[in-house]
User: Fold this.
Amino acid sequence: MKLSIRIICALLFVHLCFAAPNSNRYDDEDSRENSIDAVEQGKQVHQFDLLIFTQRWPITACYEWRETGKEHICGLPTPATVWTIHGIWPTKLNTIGPAFCNKSAIFDVSQLSPIEPQLEAHWVNVEKNKPDDSLWEHEWLKHGTCAAEAIEQLNTEAKYFGQGLSWLEQHSVSAAFATNGDIKPGFNYSLPTLNKALYDYYGKNVAIECFFDRKTHQQFLNEVRICFDKQLQSADCDGIVGLERIALPNSRVGTVISNCNAAKPIFYPDAVPKKQEEEEEKEVLQLDRDVVYETVYEISDGKTEIEVILV
Assistant:
């Protein structure tokens, strides 16, 4: 009897030791992407509540990319002053993710052939150090595979990217700014002003994202995120991690979903700012001119004519 018990215990120990590492094939990955996974009837199910349709201002995106690496170069659409698509992101409220839901998925750019010209114009990869279709591949594998699990209208590459193009046509930030507030590139705006224009146009709470330049301490309008439910109907963007509701003092709208500093102006650029090195070179050249001018002025009294040659 004692021998049988020992054998059973030994077998149980071996089972636990060898079964545990394979209990979840996502254990070694980023917990932020897998914290909302569930197993249903032996199948991996990635739950989410909203689809975040993200439009970005390509000038700011280009500037941000360039500033994050000395070798980074960027390209802009033609014309540059149009809002483009970043992605459609399934999101669980108050959680990051899900992401990369189909680990065996591949990206096949040939499936996008009928709409590729439109994607090149409106779903633009500003990171020119990377292949032209790298943004599309990233968005499909990271976000599209999650949307495809739950929403029939987004369950192929063609449907996912086609929906993005359709939403851009129907819900363009450019149209929102032109219709409400006449907000144009090249100027600074307050966060309440931007939020009012967007809310009046969409009738929902959207999210406004800024890029902060650590060198100049300036904040740039970067992205606007519009939310939809699983039936592809517009919804409020509450519960997005990283873009929380912040108070707007002295505004009829008490709060706004944003990461921007409400106390400072937000620049809506009409061109990519010059590189810091170029500005520094200009300052040096200007300083040299000032020195020459001062020297010539001192020499003009005739007391130090020999220095004219040295200058």
Summary: The domain at 46-276 is CATH 3.90.730.10 (Ribonuclease Rh; Chain A). The chain has one domain: 46-276.
